Amino acid sequence: MLILERIIHQIDPDKWPEVMIMEAEFDQVEKPFGFTEKKRFRTLIAEDGVNTLVIERNWPSMAALEAAYDKASADPGWQAIGMKWSTVIKDTRYELFLVLQ
Asked: Where do the structural domains in the chain lie, given as residue ranges?
């Protein structure tokens, strides 16, 4: 059962450089926890507006997604980066999809 995870962040317009630095930090911290590769998108035209960062990951299963987040949420480095997000993010929405074959 393949899962598509989508995270939609509304970004403070002046904070894009900081966002991309933090995303690179997340990439490094998440590697040992089994996170799958991210695809990142910035909207050009969308309901959510132009200051929107969309992150997508494909997971082999819900169990793999849950295991990676369980490990990351217990890590002080991951927690520290997450705390910095509150300074650049206006809103966040999470979506999970079952990938149909």
From this structure: 3-96
The candidate with the shortest Cα–Cα distance to 22, out of 6, 32, 33, 11, is 11
Q: What is the pTM of this model?
A: 0.91
DSSP state of 99: P
User: Where are the strands (E) in the chain, listed by range?
Assistant: 3-11, 38-42, 52-59, 89-98
Structure tokens at 96: 């999970």
Q: Name residue, tokens 């509304």.
A: 10
Phi and psi torsions of 3, nearest 5°: -120, 135
Vertex 48, ends 29 and 101: CA angle to 5°? Answer: 70
Instruction: Answer yes or no: CATH 3.20.20.70 is held by domain 3-96.
Output: no
pLDDT digits (tens, 9 = 90+) for 27-47: 999 999 999 999 999 999 988
Give me 53's structure tokens.
């960062």
